[in-house]
Amino acid sequence: MTSLLEVRNLSRSFGGLVAVNNVSFALGAGQITALIGPNGAGKTTCFNLVAGAMRPTSGQVFFEARRIENTPPEAVCRMGIARTFQIVRPMRDMSVLENAMVGAFSWTSSVGEARSKAYESLESVGLAGKANASTDQLTLSDRKMLETAKALSTRPKLLLLDEVMAGLRPTEAASVVRVLRRLAETGLTILLVEHVMRIVMEVASRVVVLHHGAKIAEGSPAEVVADPKVLESYLGTGFHA
Ligand SMILES: Nc1ncnc2c1ncn2[C@@H]1O[C@H](COP(=O)(O)OP(=O)(O)OP(=O)(O)O)[C@@H](O)[C@H]1O
């Protein structure tokens, strides 16, 4: 398997706290991988390190075999890594389409090109019908999909999704799962942080489990939920897949 992204022995400390501790994993192109673990396990810090928002204390991040751990976030974005944030904040004085266009300005200064890419991104997340709506009219699920569309407008090869399904109703989450599957089928690689194990099992082909900053397990969803370390530290011994 050729890896699109590889993190090698990645660590990040905040004072005396080791938030990410010697973590290594690799993502194959077109795969959906879930990064899971209890609150404070280091998942968002991992995202920040991959996206260039934070520098590691030690370790390396390779994207398409190039070292990127000291690359600024704008340059990481131009290379093909886009992310969404846990808290979604669309720009309220702009339409849904205009919000989605923002991502495209990372690679073009043409308004026409940005608009056309933004439409395509909105279509792929099921929001094209609301392109001219105001963001105030959007549900939480729509706002999360708009955040995803904005990230897609940057033309990423790797999409980092931070809790994109948190707070959604089961039907909304199921529709997001379908969107993510379709995106992966087009060749997009996805790394997502997700707490609901049922969704992880449905959408991800690989799972990386963090606990106190360290990787404690990695494998298929079925392997991971059967791992005693994962049951003990995260899922609880009463968990049944
Ligand atoms: N900028 C920071 N300064 C100091 N400590 C931080 C900083 N960012 C994260 N931490 C700490 O690092 C640890 C890992 O945090 P992180 O947000 O990466 O965990 P997480 O797995 O994403 O948690 P959650 O599921 O709650 O979002 C936590 O103890 C957190 O308090």
Explain what this protein looks like in three dimensions.
The chain has a six-stranded mixed β-sheet, sandwiched between helices. It has a four-stranded antiparallel β-sheet with strand order 2-1-4-5, with helices on one face. β7 (158-162), α6 and β8 (189-193) form a beta-alpha-beta unit. The protein is α/β, with parallel strands linked by helices and 241 residues long. The chain has helices at 43-50, 73-79, 96-104, 111-124, 140-152, 170-185, 197-203, 221-225, 228-235; strands at 3-14, 17-28, 32-36, 58-63, 66-67, 81-83, 158-162, 189-193, 206-211, 214-219. Adenosine-5'-triphosphate binds next to β2 and α1. Residues 5-237 form the ABC transporter domain. GO terms for molecular function: ATP binding. Pfam families: ABC_tran (PF00005), BCA_ABC_TP_C (PF12399). Involved in beta-(1-->2)glucan export. Transmembrane domains (TMD) form a pore in the inner membrane and the ATP-binding domain (NBD) is responsible for energy generation.
Q: What's the SSE blueprint?
A:
Elements: E1 3-14, E2 17-28, E3 32-36, H1 43-50, E4 58-63, E5 66-67, H2 73-79, E6 81-83, H3 96-104, H4 111-124, H5 140-152, E7 158-162, H6 170-185, E8 189-193, H7 197-203, E9 206-211, E10 214-219, H8 221-225, H9 228-235
Parallel strand pairs: 3-8, 3-9, 6-7, 7-8
Antiparallel strand pairs: 1-2, 1-4, 4-5, 9-10
Helix pairs in contact: 3-4, 3-5, 4-5
Shape descriptor reads globular
What sequence of helices (H) and strands (E) makes up the elements?
EEEHEEHEHHHEHEHEEHH
Biggest β-sheet description: 6 strands, mixed
Unreliable parts: none
From the alpha-carbon coordinates, what is the Rg to the nearest angstrom?
Answer: 18 Å
Count of DSSP E strands?
Answer: 10
Arithmetic mean of pLDDT: 92
Instruction: Please list the strands of the largest sheet in the order they lie side by side.
Output: 6-7-8-3-9-10
Strand content: 25-35%
Distance between the termini: 28 Å
InterPro entries: AAA+_ATPase, ABC_AA/LPS_Transport, ABC_transporter-like_ATP-bd, BCA_ABC_TP_C, P-loop_NTPase
Keywords: ATP-binding, Nucleotide-binding, Transport
GO molecular function: ATP binding
Function: Involved in beta-(1-->2)glucan export. Transmembrane domains (TMD) form a pore in the inner membrane and the ATP-binding domain (NBD) is responsible for energy generation.
